[in-house]
Design goal:
The chain has 362 residues and is of the alpha+beta class. It has helices at 3-17, 21-32, 37-44, 50-89, 108-122, 136-139, 150-154, 179-185, 227-242, 297-302, 319-327, 340-346, and strands at residues 126-127, 133-135, 171-173, 192-201, 212-222, 249-256, 259-272, 275-278, 285-295, 311-318. Helix 2 (21-32) packs antiparallel against helix 4 (50-89) and helix 3 packs antiparallel against helix 4. The chain is elongated and about 110 Å long. Bound molecules: 3,4-dihydroxyphenylalanine.
């Protein structure tokens, strides 16, 4: 028996006897690795005379191929056996309770936005959106707030550097959701009924102001719209939102550049052990909740519509404040701290989708 035959037999035996994948790999390294027996034979071909190589070459190559094939076969067999064993040993008892999964919750701001969408959908409003990075035409000019208007200064605007201007318009972080009114009127024909919830930004920070906060805008444009429509819509909305019928609203004359006439709307509250609770037929006091009015003809005209044909009303209010009033939080900053304990306490279960029939906040 030649050395080659013997080596072949030994290696075949080792391969067949390898009890597992690690052991099999050790055999592979012993035969075919850099320092392996078969590798050494292959290297020796270089030092042979052409005649020697003629006879030894094919035999050495055949040995290498045989060993390689045997290794692959054994590997496949071992893997199949391992899978069999795993399948036989693993069972899944579907009657066991599911393991406790870490649970997220819906942030109160998202919850209130969902509630608003649900309430207004019932009144025929759809949800509109606009960019948070706005230009000063949409945020101010088209809303009847020209360059020199004092309201621009009141907004504590975050402006982008001048060289970020687009089409000659200065860019900024929108200071309110009102520019969505403009974007909606310039992109779809009336009649229009939308709400636009979203993020807004002002350079302001204390217990009741954060640089980023949330507003919702409402806009209706149609023929023959008047203050009565506005008042009914707001009353219907506030009653549905606070889930009480004994809500009293008070409209105070006010001023916004984009509405004429304008009104600030207060909701009556009653005192319950010193705490203000929204509602009660005979209020102990009033809290301001939103700004509103009839859309100014200049705004309608800026959007390319004829103000003699189309009228409308608009309103805007802070979502964070709405959430605080309904769910009893007293510090606005906690909304944005990302504190898990606060989120667990005030958050809502992900599957508790607000519905009017179920009670929007239930
Ligand atoms: N945009 C106003 C603000 O941020 C809120 C507002 C007031 C919106 C009256 C309106 C409105 O649409 O009619 O203070």
């Amino acid at each position: 028996m030649t050395d080659l035959d013997q080596m072949q037999q030994e290696l075949s035996a080792a391969i067949a006897a390898a009890p597992g994948l690690d052991a099999l790999d050790a055999v592979r390294v012993r035969a075919l690795g850099k320092q392996g027996q078969v590798t050494a034979l292959l290297k020796s071909l270089g030092g042979m005379t052409p005649d020697e190589r003629q006879t030894a070459g094919p035999r050495i190559h055949a040995l290498r191929e045989g060993v390689t094939a045997a290794l692959a076969d054994r590997k496949a067999a071992l893997e199949a056996a391992a899978l069999e064993a795993q399948l036989a040993s693993e069972t899944l008892d579907l009657t066991l309770p599911a393991p406790a999964a870490p649970m997220g919750s819906v942030h109160p701001v998202s919850q209130v936005m969902d509630e608003l969408a649900e309430i207004f959908a019932d009144l025929g409003f759809s949800v509109a959106t606009g960019p948070e990075i706005e230009d000063d035409w949409h945020n101010f000019t088209a809303l009847n707030i020209p360059e020199s208007h004092p309201a621009r200064a009141m907004h504590d605007t975050f402006y982008f550097p001048d060289d970020a201007a687009r089409d000659g318009r200065r860019m900024l972080l929108r200071t309110h959701t009102s520019p969505v009114q403009i974007r909606t009127m310039t992109s779809q024909p009336p009649p229009i009924r939308i709400i636009a919830p979203g993020r807004t930004y002002r350079s302001d920070s204390d217990a009741t102001h954060t640089p980023m906060f949330h507003q919702v805008e409402g806009l209706v444009i149609d023929r023959g719209i008047h203050l009565g429509h506005l008042k009914w819509t707001l009353e219907t909305f506030v009653k549905a939102y606070f889930e009480r019928d004994d809500i009293v609203l008070r409209m105070r004359p006010s001023y916004f550049p984009f509405t004429e006439p304008s009104a600030e709307v207060d909701v009556g509250y009653t005192l319950d052990k010193g705490r203000r609770v929204v509602g009660g037929a005979e209020p102990d006091g009033w809290m301001e909740i939103l700004g509103s009015g009839m859309v100014h003809p200049n705004v309608i005209a800026a959007c390319g519509l004829d103000p003699d044909e189309w009228q409308g009303f608009a309103f805007g209010c802070g979502i964070d404040r709405l959430a605080m009033l309904k769910y009893g939080m007293d510090d606005l900053r906690a909304f944005f701290d990302g504190d898990l304990r606060w989120l667990r306490h005030y958050g809502f279960a992900a599957l508790d989708v607000p519905t009017l029939s179920g009670g929007v906040g239930a």
